[in-house]
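Reproducibility note. Readers wishing to regenerate the assembly model reported in the main text can use the exact inputs given here. Chain order matters: entities are listed in the order in which they were concatenated for prediction.
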Amino acid sequence: MIALLFATLRTATPLLLAGLGGMFSERGGVVNLALEGILLTGAFTAATVSYYTGSATAGVLAAILAGALIAGLHALMSLKFRVDQVVSGVAINMLAMGLTEFLMWIFFDSGSNSPRVDGFSSPEALSGILTEVPILTICALLAVPIAAWVLFRTRFGLRLRSVGEHPEAADSLGIRVHLVQLQGVLLSGVLAGAGGAFLSLNAHYFVKNMSAGRGYIALAALIFGKWHPGGVLAATLLFGFTESLQGHLHISWLPVRFVQMLPYVLTMVALVGVIGRSKGPLALGRLFVKD
Amino acid sequence: MPDPKLKGGLPPIAAWLRRLGLIAVESLWPPLLALALSFAVGSVIVLAIGESPLRVLSLIFLPGLRSVDGFAHVLFSATPLIFTGLSVAYAFRAGLFNIGGEGQLYMGAFLAAVVALSLPEAPRPVAMILGIAAAAAGGAIWGFIPGWLRARFGVHEVINTIMMNFIAVGLTGYCVEYYLQESGMIPHTAVIPEAFQLIPFARGPVGAWLGLNRANPLGFSIILALLAAIAVAFLFKRGVEGYRLRSVGLNPQAARYAGIAVGRVQMRAMAVAGALAGLVGVHEVLLYRHRYLDNFSTGLGFLGIAVALMGKNHPLGIVLAALLFGFLNTGALEIDLFTEVPRELVVVLQAMIILFVVAIGEMATRRRRRRRGRQ
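Running the prediction on these inputs yields the following structure tokens for the assembly.
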């Protein structure tokens, strides 16, 4: 049972980080399908950098930087070039997929996985808990109240939400809409990049297409959690639980494939409104154009 | 003072040709510029690896241009992309974004296999029709659901189509694994009955005449794809449904006041889009593998979005864009074999093409609008 709890926490970590990231982007009104690509890039960067430097911390920092870079590309495409946000996200995910596989050949001469990386080594005194609950998981859990505080208690959070709900009104108050949105998107890159780092450092290597749709699950968790930090936490824990069930429970009448489908079905149900309608920011996906 | 009737001063056919030329130039330069820019970036990457960009470029394009057989391979690789590209464009005409091509094509292919496997006695003509209809129906169901959710509950189709991609993967995987599996590493069904199998051109009477290698897989699905493209083009241009699609896509509010049942049009649009994607099943199951293979699509649905964007959501453009992507995909094998450049370069190129195409397209519209504003 305890093992299942720890497994849930571990599988939920990348989802939680990406989900919180997605929250900052979408609360500002920018749809971010690129989460998937950011996770993948983050995972690759963390594995590569920590392989060459031998330091997991360096890997995480590099992954955060890479995540911000990809998010920046998404912001550039959708805010500056006014490309449809969904299109930009899909294209960026394709780019991330191609680029990580391409670079894997260049750096590791392999089409499937990177060599082993060490990941985090835990200090002696805390090793008991830290081997089961990695440091990034604790960071992710701590990020929930911090994200809530930023979103609901700071000036930036207020601006971000107002931009996502009604950009014209925000603009008339002198808020620089696109700048605030850019910050939100970059923040999503930072968080999802760290989530990607967790993926490869926790598994001790990078595998081709390692994110495997987790960016989309994070997006689903964001919707299921009603664009709220607490909701995102609850949703990612639930989704993490369903994903880690397969390794720990063997129920013959309940096929694993159905358990795996649960997050997607639940999200559709939540959107339709059977269990309390899930509604996003009003101006989500609509680009603000100043005349 | 010139006669107003002689404005332009060209005979009708010449004027028409001139207009066509202008349209061609207007709509061709953004994708071509995008292509040039992506190849430029790609060349830098190739140079950095220490290979010659010209050699890579010729490896990508020459095999398809050198022989009929090579070109047939390109056509074969382009076929599923024509279907998924048309699917995206069809929904887009009604203002809907179909990211669910991947799930729809899985369901289409799966249903085609199931129908074929459960009717081993079907006579040839019936089997052909049933197989194609099953592929279309499987995709149509999977497209209809998000369309219905959009029309009935106002839920945006983007999230739902993404979710349904994953559900389709799970569902087909489950069914293949538990009910239909034959032994093998990757779960797959048994071979479908002979009556349902489409035979590649190369093994038919025209194969030798065309100069196709006996192993060439090109077959009926390319004809079906081109027919679908013509049908969609005709419908966009002339059909009543095409008019409804466009008015709903351009302005649902106005369409409603004009007496169009917006919700129904949206549901139909998603169902047809799903059916178009589902027809990939004809290509994959009835023609190519003669069985359903779990997880066979490596992003064909997503590439369809790229193809539709590059082809500006026009059937002719989509066929051309699918052809380009067909060249890239078949060329990927060549550059893998003969150079130090990994084949994934092609995926990077394709992604860059979309990014450049949409950015340039958006800037071109803006410039046009500005110019029109000034006049």
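We highlight two features of this model. Chain A touches chain B through 42 residues (CB under 8 Å). Residues 13-212 of chain A form one domain.
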